[in-house]
Structures are given as C-alpha cells and as structure tokens.
C-alpha cells in the first residue's frame, strides 16, 4: 500500500513562496502532496496566484495572547479533522504551530523549520516536532533551551530563502506589467509584523521612513500591508497613496525587479540579499543571527535611528541579472522530509 501524501501547512505569506518549490520537487519525484493554508495576510491569495491548491483552515487570532491561544486550539482541532480524511504520512511546515501540535497529537511525523531564534513559540514547535530544521547560524544555546535536542536537529548551511528562490527566473517586465512605474526608483516596503507573538513593541522609526518616501516624486513606492487592518491604519496615518491595492504580488519577482527593499521583517530582506537588491532592515526587535551576518557581509543595512534614514541610498540599481539560485538546499530539504516519512528517527 502506498504511503499517504506529504502534508504542507502554510500559515503566513512567506511560507507560500518557501513551499512552492518544495511542493514542485515532491510532485516531480512522484510524491502526492496536500496543502492547508491559514487565512491570514496574503497567504491564501498567494496560493491562488502561484497555482497551489490549498484547503483553507483557520485564521489569525489577533494581537492578544488570549486570542492567539483560542485560535490555535480551534485550528488544531480543524487540522486534526483534515488529517483524518487526507491521511498524510508526514507533516512539514515553517513556523506553523497548528501543524506541529496537530501532527504530534495524531502521531504523524513532523518536520518544522525556523530561522528566527527570538520567537517565543519555538518552545512549542521544537518540542512537538520529530525533526527541527534551522540554519547553522541559529544559536545553539537557544536551540537547546527551546527544546530542539541534538538528535532531532538538522542545521543546514545557507538561508531558507535559497529554497524559496531555487530555480527562480526573474521576469524583467514584471514590475511594469503590474502597473508600477519602473522609470522611477522602485522601492518595495514591508511594514512590521505587529500582530505576531514575537512583535510586542512599537516601531516609531518606521513611520519616519514612510514620511521620507511619501514626499519623493522620483520614487515608485510599493507599500505592502500584511493585513487589511494594517492597510486601513496606514491610510488613516496619511500613507494611503503608498499602499498597494492590487492583487497579491509574487514577492520574488517584485524583490528581483525593485531597486531598493525596506522591510521591518525578515524574509523579504533576505530574498533581496540573495537576489542582489539593496536591502534595509527597519525591524525594531532583536535581530536574527542571520541578519547580523548579512549586515557584516554588506548585503543588509540596519536602520536604527532617524539619522540612518538620511543615509539610505535610494537610487536605481545597476541592470545586472541576479545569479541563479541553485537547488542544493531544496533537494536536501526534500530529502529530509522523505527520510522522516520513510521511518527516520522518531521521538
């Protein structure tokens, strides 16, 4: 009897881009795949845009800890029901806490990936998972404290964005095809993830950055709110003319075609670093070890105070093709999923 499908759960927008090549690689190897998606941010819309059939299960629990707990409990129950009829043989997610808890409760082997060491919910995901995938730069002491024991940890070389960008081919006409004026300097901006568990602080510097961009007629600024509520808040603060109101965009093509990326999160900046687009981090929390390494290499610049805003180089980048991203890490990741599926080390 054939084993059940590989179950992928995407709970946030960047995870869609990460798992698109993973799903394609699995399908190319003749492996059945089922996908669930949480209705949050642009997750479901991106699944549709990128041609990923997904069953929508659950939504975000809001900013409060109580709301997050209630929604996690509800989503775990719904994911368990999904598993009873889809019968997956292995579960895989990136910072998907519903998946790790549901998989653990049903005895399904779980691979969870993560690249930010200061996420409090790592304690849940790492303890529930059979295999934890993190970059080599993830601090070992935090790994151990968060429940990722050595026997169930895979520390890989590189960035998770190398999986998301594996085999990616830039489309030089994408920016203009989406109605963005690329005769100007194209600046892509991502606000803070202010609904996330790890984001329990303000970021007044981000508003100063938007004020700098709003007044420059030489820019085509694409401000990508994470939620509809955040879009309303940005518009009420006077930045509605910067907000993108169109369909969900392919972040890989957008970052590749942009001249500058400014993000108060992590994934988009790391995609920019891989693709050679100048990137600025406006994240107000503790930076990831990965981001510190990128800054040391000159591939990422931290914005930490108002004087830093004036030092940004917002100019057209040289017209050079980004080096293709190889598939080594993608193949390694899929190999680990299938190893676990085929009886690899269990808890």
Task: Describe this entry's structure for a reader.
The chain is 41% helix and 16% strand. The chain is of the alpha/beta class and 347 residues long. It has 2 domains: 6-166 and 327-341, Rossmann fold (3-Layer(aba) Sandwich), CATH 3.40.50.2000; 174-310, Glycogen Phosphorylase B (Rossmann fold), CATH 3.40.50. The strands form 2 sheets. The chain has a 7-stranded parallel β-sheet with strand order 3-2-1-4-5-6-7, sandwiched between helices. Helix 1 (13-28) crosses helix 15. The protein is globular and about 60 Å long. The two termini are 25 Å apart. The model is unreliable at 196-201 (pLDDT under 50).
Compact description:
The chain is an alpha/beta fold. The chain has 15 helices and twelve strands.
What is the number of domains? 2
Number of strands: 12
Describe the global form.
globular
CATH superfamily annotation of the largest domain: Glycogen Phosphorylase B
Which properties best describe this structure?
Rossmann fold; 7-stranded parallel beta sheet; 5-stranded parallel beta sheet; alpha/beta; single chain; globular; about 350 residues
Write the layout of secondary structure elements.
Blueprint (H helix, E strand, L loop, with lengths): L5 E5 L2 H16 L4 E7 L3 H7 L5 E5 L5 H22 L3 E5 L2 H10 L3 E4 L8 H7 L2 E5 L4 H6 L7 E4 L4 H4 L9 H4 L7 E6 L13 H11 L4 E5 L4 H12 L11 H7 L2 E4 L3 H9 L3 E3 L7 H8 L4 E2 L3 H5 L17 H14 L6
Parallel strand pairs: 1-2, 1-4, 2-3, 4-5, 5-6, 6-7, 8-9, 8-10, 10-11, 11-12
Helix pairs in contact: 1-2, 1-15, 3-4, 4-5, 11-12
């Amino acid at each position: 009897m054939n084993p059940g499908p590989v179950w992928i759960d995407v709970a946030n927008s960047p995870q869609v881009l990460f798992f698109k090549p993973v799903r394609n690689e699995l399908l190319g190897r003749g492996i059945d795949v089922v996908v669930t998606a949480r209705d949050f941010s642009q997750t479901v819309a991106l699944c549709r845009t990128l041609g990923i059939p997904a069953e929508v299960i659950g939504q975000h629990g809001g900013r409060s800890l109580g709301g997050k707990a209630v929604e996690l409990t509800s989503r775990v129950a719904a994911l368990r029901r999904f598993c009873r009829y889809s019968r997956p043989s292995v579960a895989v997610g990136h910072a998907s806490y519903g998946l790790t808890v549901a998989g653990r409760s049903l005895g399904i082997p779980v691979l969870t990936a993560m690249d930010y060491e200061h996420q409090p919910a790592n304690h849940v995901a790492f303890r529930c998972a059979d295999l934890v995938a993190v970059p080599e730069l993830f601090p070992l002491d935090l790994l151990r404290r968060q429940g990722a024991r050595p026997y169930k940890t895979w520390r890989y070389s590189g960035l998770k964005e190398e999986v998301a960008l594996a085999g990616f081919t830039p489309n030089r006409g994408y920016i203009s095809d989406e109605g963005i004026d690329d005769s100007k300097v194209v600046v892509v901006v991502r606000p803070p993830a202010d609904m996330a568990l790890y984001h329990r602080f303000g970021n007044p510097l981000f508003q100063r950055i938007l004020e700098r961009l709003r007044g420059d007629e030489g820019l085509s600024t694409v401000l990508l709110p994470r939620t509809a509520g955040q879009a309303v808040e940005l518009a009420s603060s006077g930045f509605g003319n910067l907000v993108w109101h169109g369909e969900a965009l392919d972040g890989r093509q957008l970052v590749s075609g942009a001249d500058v990326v400014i993000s108060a999160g992590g994934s988009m900046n790391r995609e920019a670093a891989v693709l050679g687009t100048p990137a600025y981090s406006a994240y107000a929390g503790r930076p990831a070890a990965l981001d510190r390494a990128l800054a040391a290499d000159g591939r990422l610049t931290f914005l930490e105070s108002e004087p830093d805003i004036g030092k940004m180089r917002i100019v057209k980048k040289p017209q050079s093709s980004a080096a293709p991203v190889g598939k080594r890490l993608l193949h390694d990741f899929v190999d680990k999923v299938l190893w676990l599926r085929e009886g690899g080390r269990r808890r």
